[in-house]
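Backbone-to-sequence.
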């Protein structure tokens, strides 16, 4: 029966409209900033808020200390009525008070930052690991349809953007809003409504201009990010295919391809910096005009006797203090808008529903014998192109079943369905009578070992790659499995032995050595069911025979599915299935299929002819070499 693979909303995913807004993003991040399971982080948040409030009250007090010190120096009559203890009304004392307040402001601000740092980075870490885990839960189809370089770049920018949103909203946006409210109150108390009106108009125009200009810059920023991702993807793709580039003398072609992407990135980056300059210039003009207007009001008041020189100094210091965080507010808006753009792709990933899910109440697979059965399985990667058309067979306990056929017949698709990377369109697959769609994926894959055609190793040590089969394996276990895979002597020949690095994707090892590592880690896993997916097709004949011997030893006592292109590797199989155009065209043992004279026999004869021709060429080369050596000896 068809599997239920309909998309389901991720518990952490927001709809598109919410993900595109600041409030929606903050709502998503709130559980990470205020984690239910971390009382220590909650305490840090509260202490950071307290430090922020103290910092802003001290920030408002600083201009008043400067005002009183200025009035005292100017000999203003109002200096005698300063609302401070008499011991603090002297010029030196007021100047010292100004300095003390600035120190308190700095300490409270830095304390706030230090307290909140752990909260912000814990949120970044938890979100990063959630995305990482989610990526591994997504289907093979998802990963095959995306370029790894572009995906990692999206994640890198998204992680940085999350940190930006968390830190700027808590450390800049909220404190600046509080400071603005306090300044409005100070203007009303110390001056009058005209000053407040000028301040409100200035800030409103400043924020309006910032919003309009930033929205204009968003498309420019998006184009720059796209060109950056494209260039990075091309670079990674080229470097991963380093040998292919060399084979075809394509260095200049790759450089031109990369330069084309970088040229677009250059243009977009220049546009980004020019637009930033326009934004900053406009902000400076608007705020400066507002500050001059407030100071002119005060000059008028000083001339009329309503204000003192200290009031002029108070306004100047207060407006400058406001300009600094307000300027950051412009940056905050830009950064948040840009961060929302950057993490939009990450949110899209989080909202992707895994194509393959454990069903409610799924139980662990219990393998007693290891009987694998395909029952009328139909599957296609695309609904318009069916790959398997009603495939049915049984691999008995401990038996070896080989699956052969021409390219595109659906051989490797069978292994992917068995691992449940995809769900059959119809039909079912069972292991010891248990439908693999009804058991947990972890238990299913723990019961199956895989030796693929193209073994890709992690860029780590030989021991690390071997322990991928069983993470708690001892040194003795590693040596034993390496000996079984006939790779122990090679490992000991390496300068660092089991601690030797294998390089990116295992490129420091030969094809045969990588295959032996794959065999060894599969032995270490000790699965009851084994899949060999064209495990020797990329190797030379001599290495193939050695690897085949190791594979036969691994297969003993295990139910084994062998997907093969070279028919010489499956002659001893208990049953051979011949796939053609998604159906089993023939089945039987090697001798039986040859006797039928059908598709298998035709494939066998064709491969034998190729092998015989290669043997003759090899014999001719050896004879020619021997003749040349004899001629040299005669001379």
């Amino acid at each position: 029966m068809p599997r239920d693979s309909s998309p389901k909303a991720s518990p952490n995913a927001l709809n598109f409209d919410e993900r595109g807004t600041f409030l929606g993003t903050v709502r998503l991040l709130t559980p990470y900033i205020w984690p239910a399971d971390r009382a220590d982080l909650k305490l840090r948040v509260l202490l950071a808020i307290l430090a922020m409030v103290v910092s802003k009250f001290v920030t408002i007090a600083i201009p008043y200390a400067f005002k009183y010190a200025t009035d005292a120096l100017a000999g203003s009559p109002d200096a005698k009525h300063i609302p401070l203890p008499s011991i603090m009304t002297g010029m030196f004392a007021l100047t010292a008070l100004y300095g003390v307040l600035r120190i308190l402001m700095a300490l409270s601000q830095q304390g706030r930052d230090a307290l909140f740092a752990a909260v912000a980075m814990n949120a970044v870490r938890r979100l990063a690991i959630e995305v990482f885990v989610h990526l591994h839960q997504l289907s093979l189809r998802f990963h095959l349809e995306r370029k790894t370089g572009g995906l990692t770049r999206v994640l890198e920018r998204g992680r940085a953007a999350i940190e930006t949103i968390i830190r700027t909203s808590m450390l800049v946006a909220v404190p600046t809003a509080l400071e603005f409210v306090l300044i409005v109150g100070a203007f009303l108390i110390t001056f009058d409504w005209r000053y407040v009106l000028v301040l409100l108009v200035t800030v409103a125009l400043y924020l309006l201009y910032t919003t309009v200009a930033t929205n204009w810059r968003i498309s420019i920023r998006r184009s720059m990010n796209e060109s950056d991702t494209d260039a990075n993807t091309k670079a990674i793709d080229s470097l991963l295919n380093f040998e292919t580039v060399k084979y075809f003398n394509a260095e200049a072609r790759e450089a031109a391809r990369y330069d084309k992407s970088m040229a677009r990135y250059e243009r977009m980056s220049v546009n980004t910096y020019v637009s930033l300059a326009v934004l900053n210039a406009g902000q400076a003009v608007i705020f400066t005009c507002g500050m001059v207007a407030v100071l002119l009001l005060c000059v008028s008041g000083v001339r009329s006797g309503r204000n003192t020189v200290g009031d002029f100094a108070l306004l100047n210091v207060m407006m400058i203090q406001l300009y600094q965080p307000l300027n950051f507010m412009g940056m905050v808006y830009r950064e948040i808008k840009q961060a929302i753009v950057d993490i939009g792709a990450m949110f899209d990933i989080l909202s992707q529903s895994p194509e393959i899910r454990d069903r409610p109440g799924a139980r662990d697979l219990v393998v007693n014998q290891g009987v694998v059965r395909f029952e009328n399985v139909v599957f296609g990667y695309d609904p318009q192109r069916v790959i398997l058309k009603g495939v049915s067979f049984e691999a008995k306990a401990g038996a070896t079943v080989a699956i052969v056929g021409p390219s595109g017949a659906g051989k490797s698709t069978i292994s992917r369905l068995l691992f449940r990377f995809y769900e059959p369109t119809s039909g079912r697959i069972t292991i010891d009578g248990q439908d693999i769609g009804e058991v947990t994926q972890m238990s299913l894959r723990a019961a199956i070992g895989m030796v693929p055609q193209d073994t890709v190793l992690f860029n780590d040590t030989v021991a690390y790659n071997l322990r991928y089969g069983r993470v708690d394996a001892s040194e003795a276990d590693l040596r034993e499995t390496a000996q079984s895979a006939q790779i122990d002597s090679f490992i000991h020949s390496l300068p660092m032995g089991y601690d030797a690095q294998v390089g990116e994707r295992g490129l420091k090892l030969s094809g045969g050595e990588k295959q032996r590592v794959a065999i060894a880690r599969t032995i270490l896993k000790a699965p009851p069911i084994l899949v060999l997916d064209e495990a020797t097709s990329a190797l030379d004949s001599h290495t193939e025979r050695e690897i085949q011997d190791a594979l036969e030893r691994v297969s003993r006592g295990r139910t084994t599915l062998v997907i093969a292109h070279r028919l010489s590797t499956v002659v001893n199989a208990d049953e051979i299935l011949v796939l053609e155009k998604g159906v089993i065209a023939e089945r039987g043992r090697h001798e039986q299929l040859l006797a039928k004279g059908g598709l298998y026999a035709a494939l066998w004869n064709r491969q034998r002819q190729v092998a015989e021709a290669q043997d003759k060429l090899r014999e001719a080369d050896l004879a020619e070499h021997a003749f040349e050596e004899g001629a040299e000896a005669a001379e």
